[in-house]
Write a structure and sequence with these properties.
By secondary structure, the chain is mainly beta. It has one domain (6-176). 6% of the residues lie in helices and 56% in strands. The protein has 1 helix and 8 strands, in the order H-E-E-E-E-E-E-E-E. The chain has one helix at residues 6-16; strands at residues 27-32, 48-59, 69-82, 87-100, 105-116, 125-141, 144-159, 168-176. The longest helix is centred in the first third of the chain and has 11 residues, at 6-16. The radius of gyration is 18 Å and the shape is elongated.
Length: 177
């Protein structure tokens, strides 16, 4: 049984009335520990910046009701922990695109720009990057939004290795609903 967050239902409701594809709405929500203010400035580097682009090819096992929407949500989490001091930094980015389904297929691309000031990797610093997704198919009839199908998972896990700064890094994710 999948547990849905209020945010996921909100995204579903917002997407139900969308008739066209929308650009990704990237959000930067910097979460830091109280110790972050005490990070040694010598170990903090210039921001790592770029774009992560995820293209979903969605196969629908059966066609959705006419006018159905598909929401493609991507979330990125970049984290840094200094062993010995337990100081940490955490960055969250997200993007969403709404598209109409077409028969038994749909596709969407979510691009998320980012800029993170993480300490350099070392024997005492552990940096990681995780990417997850949620695909939600919904329909609306007489003002009532119905969840038709959904799928989610992880498409990216990197430890002490990040995409090159300034690059657009692309991932392709096949999804079956």
């Amino acid at each position: 049984m999948r547990i849905w967050s209020i945010a996921a239902w909100g995204l579903l409701a917002l997407g139900a009335g969308m008739a066209v594809s929308r650009p990704a709405a990237a959000q930067n929500d910097r979460n830091t520990s109280p110790a972050e203010a005490q990070l040694d400035p010598e170990i903090t580097t210039a921001p790592l910046a770029g774009t992560i682009e995820v293209t979903f090819t969605i196969t629908l096992k059966s066609a959705l009701p006419s006018g159905s929407n598909v929401a493609c949500l991507v979330e990125l989490s970049a984290n840094s922990i200094q062993s010995g001091t337990a100081q940490s930094l955490s960055y969250r980015e997200s993007g969403i695109v709404y598209v109409k389904s077409s028969g038994t297929s749909a596709s969407c691309t979510v691009a998320i720009p980012y800029a993170w000031a993480l300490p350099a990797d070392s024997s005492t610093v552990l940096n990681d990057l995780e990417g997850s997704y949620q695909i939600i198919a919904s329909s609306a009839s007489a003002g009532v939004v119905s969840l038709e199908r959904s799928s989610g998972g992880t498409f990216l896990v990197l430890t002490n290795t990040f995409p090159a700064s300034g690059a657009t890094t692309k991932y392709a994710v096949p999804v079956t609903l």
